[in-house]
Amino acid sequence: MKEPKLKSLCRKFKKRIVLLAVIVIVGGATWFARFNPLAIFFEMDTFISFFIKDFFPPQFVFQAENIRALFVTVAMAFAASMTAFLIAGFLSFLGSDTTSPSLILARGIRAVASVFRNVPTLVWAFILFMSFGIGETIGFLALLISSLGFLTRAFIETLDAAAPEIREAAVATGATYWKRVFCFILPDIIPGYISWLLYNVELNIRSSSIVGMVGGGGIGLVLFSYIKMYRYGKAAGIIIQIALLVIAFECVTKNIRKRILS
Amino acid sequence: MNKILSVKNLTKRYRNGITALSNVSMEIEHGEFVAIIGSSGSGKSTLLRCINRLIQPTEGSVEFDGSDICKLSSAELKKIRRKIGMIFQHHNLVNSLTVIQNVLHGRLGYMRTIPAVLGLYSDSDRRKALDLLEQTGLNSFVTQRAGELSGGQQQRVGILRALMQNPMLMLCDEPIASLDPHSAKLVMGLIKQLTVERGITCIVNLHQVEAAVRYATRIIGLDHGNIVFDDTPDKLTDDIIRKIYGGNPHDLIIGGKMHEGTEAQELVS
């Protein structure tokens, strides 16, 4: 009867230590980075005045150039997602232990995909701009690299979790590898793959504007040039356009996802 | 009468040290309907999967249709698996595909790769699948997704998929364990009827003794990987049942739940 009591005491003690550790880490980080977490309250008036005076009223510039830029941003996101979907779809079969012809190859693919995914898109964009100069192609490539990492990892996980029962049934019919993959495994996982693709398109629409700001072209570049020229009203107009774009896409993908999964 | 399957000194030890089967031997003749009964972890599932080598036995031989399954190359093994239909406890259908697509999957082993991958089944295969679906009262579900069907209906689709292989032997792993009593009766009746009509030999793992007695022409009792009973159903006395289930009559009642867990573990390891 004594042991459970000791255990619960230990647990309580642990909880306290964790709480203390969190406080120390937050405090330490604040001190180290020399930022004041309350600044946003103290300097609220400057913030609000900047917001009201400079950003308002937002000006919408309906130039052909800006509308083209908006399209470029969407196109970059789409192209990167779709290309990554095709490549990652193929790689996932080589990268999952359940379908790969070689376990070493599978491990290699997972490692590379992790690197691609864990380095932020913005960092890829900087690396590419520094080596190849700016432009929409480079923006597309930066999005492609991070999407490739993200989708390959997500697809491999989907494949790993795909029902082992179905694989067993496929083997029992005497079907060969390609028949098992195309007739049993693919139909089982495709809804999951498409769901991940849609999520990736959403992510890319957002990243695409940011990558554009640092030189990838599209609406991000337009926004950045307005900010640099202190045309905050026009910048606010662009920000609203980007927000509407992202929201619109979320609505569309939500709808498609619902239809696929039901 | 001639043998269709002869299992000799079959032993399976898993890597975690558990011996699922020890020195099991049995001979099955054409047209027999064999029920294998036993409590959780008795090795029923392993035995069934060693027959079509979904599980690689450690020692022993499985002779089917004149060849030793344990010694076949992977291409030969695939060919012979076409002659062995299999039905699973959880139906193992592709839920996102239609009923008829799942039934036609039974033909994949016989097709060339390209038409198989593209789903170009022959007219005679389609005809046969539709006929079978009509015979089993599933004709109104032909183009419905398999995942939308009830458990009993899904299991019937599973039976038809196995039948499409034109099998000589059917292996049924707990076909009624996750069905309600009414569906269970329907499914067992269907397995019996369809296999007898076609002269297909059938081996069924069951944990319901009553079902085994009712449908089987022969019962094999397994306990800790050993055959402890092998005879006609009328020879199965209460004493023997107690022996098979480890002397605890309670296992017969709550055995169902226990069973699923252990067998699943066996498969994983």
Q: N-to-C terminal Cα separation of chain A, in Å?
A: 51 Å
How much beta of chain B, percentage-wise? Answer: 15-25%
Distance between the termini of chain B: 38 Å
Which regions of chain A have little confidence, pLDDT < 50, spanning 5+ residues? Answer: none
Computed CA radius of gyration of chain A, to the nearest angstrom: 24 Å
What number of structural domains do the residues of chain A give? 2
Level-2 CATH architecture of the largest domain in chain A: Orthogonal Bundle
Under the CATH scheme, the architecture of the domain at 1-83 and 202-269 in chain B is 3-Layer(aba) Sandwich
What is the count of helical runs of chain A?
Answer: 11
**SSE class of chain B:** alpha/beta
Please write the string of helix (H) and strand (E) elements of chain A: HHHHHHHHHHH
Q: Extract low-pLDDT stretches of chain B.
A: 254-269
State the order of secondary-structure elements of chain B, H for helix, E for strand: EEEHEEHEHHHHEHEHEEHH
Largest sheet of chain A: none
Task: Please name the CATH topology of the largest domain in chain A.
Answer: MetI-like fold
Shape of chain B: globular
Q: What is the subunit arrangement here?
A: heterodimer
Instruction: Report the average pLDDT across residues of chain B.
Output: 88
Task: Provide keyphrases for this structure.
heterodimer; A: MetI-like fold; 2 domains; B: 269 residues; Rossmann fold; four-stranded antiparallel beta sheet; 10 helices; globular
Secondary structure topology:
The complex is a heterodimer of chains A (262) and B (269).
Chain A: H1 2-33, H2 39-42, H3 44-55, H4 64-95, H5 103-118, H6 121-132, H7 136-161, H8 164-172, H9 177-216, H10 219-228, H11 232-261
Helix pairs in contact in A: 4-5, 4-7, 4-9, 4-10, 5-7, 6-7, 6-9, 7-9, 8-9, 9-10, 9-11, 10-11
Chain B: E1 3-13, E2 19-29, E3 33-37, H1 44-51, E4 59-64, E5 67-68, H2 74-81, E6 84-87, H3 99-104, H4 113-118, H5 123-135, H6 151-163, E7 169-173, H7 181-198, E8 201-206, H8 209-215, E9 218-223, E10 226-231, H9 238-244, H10 250-268
Parallel strand pairs in B: 3-8, 3-9, 6-7, 7-8
Antiparallel strand pairs in B: 1-2, 1-4, 4-5, 9-10
Helix pairs in contact in B: 6-7
